[in-house]
Structure prediction request, 315 residues.
Amino acid sequence: MPYDESVPPTRRRRSLLAATALVAVCLTAAGCGAGDVGGGTRAEPRQGGGGTSAPPPSKSAPAPQKEKTSASPTPSAKTTEPSKPTGGGATGPLSGKTVVIDPGHNPNNHLHTTEINRQVDIGTTHKECDTTGTSTNSGYAEARFTLDVSHRLRTLLQEQGAKVVLTYDNDRAYGPCVDERARIGNEARADAVVSVHADGSAVGNRGFHVILPASVRGGKADTSKIVEPSRDLGTRIAGFFVRDTGSAPSNYVGGNSGLDTRKDLGGLNLSTVPKVFIECGNMRDPKDAALLTSSGWRQKAAQGIADGISSYLNG
Prediction:
């Protein structure tokens, strides 16, 4: 669900080119296939929503576009703080680094339509607090998928010594809203933030894509300092996602680059730290759905994201 301009290259340029080369090698050696950015639908009582998936990056590929919901209100039923930083106790290559993982959507959003349909400020405009997310035709919800992959990702990063914060851990009645999701990463002063999603597109649309922040300035939004590092982060994640999962970049978003840039996602517009979204596949396509519902494949997806983050942070 989770936009387009770039900033002058940084010292990570060489690493970015290396990651791009890796994608090319993986595509040549193993082939791939993939999706669209995390989508979602405006909430209606007791109804599911859309989703999105994301393709792997290429040197000239556009950055992914996509967004999720914003957050301002605190969920009704149960209110809790975002998951406390965990990990970082053991020594490892990511010791001293903080990573925020943002599991897309909440399985109970459809029960709180008034709250999640509330408009929140994303800097350049206003959007719904959150959306319901999508699901497979058999009813496997995007919100269940994103939390499962996020838990696996957290474990992998903690094993490398990173401190990990989840924006949501099945501890809220709805949301959080997209603006709050961004704020959690900002307040944690995260070295990297990844929002995990799955798309809900037409049958035949396959593959993954990574959504990158566009250069946006307006109201509370100013992504000028994070565009380039976020592209580096997203490119690396896309490259390792291809390698570790065998999936290909989206065949319907990003021109087979695995990258999509968007300016309409509050979670990206309001971020002040490097952040990307990843649409891991299309839940509405039977072939992609078979992957997304496989625990073995979800572990590979988490590994691909973790390897990309590690490459970026150690770059």
Notes: The two ends are 27 Å apart (CA to CA). The first strand starts at residue 86 and ends at 87. Residues 1-16, 18-23, 25-80 have pLDDT under 50 and may be disordered.
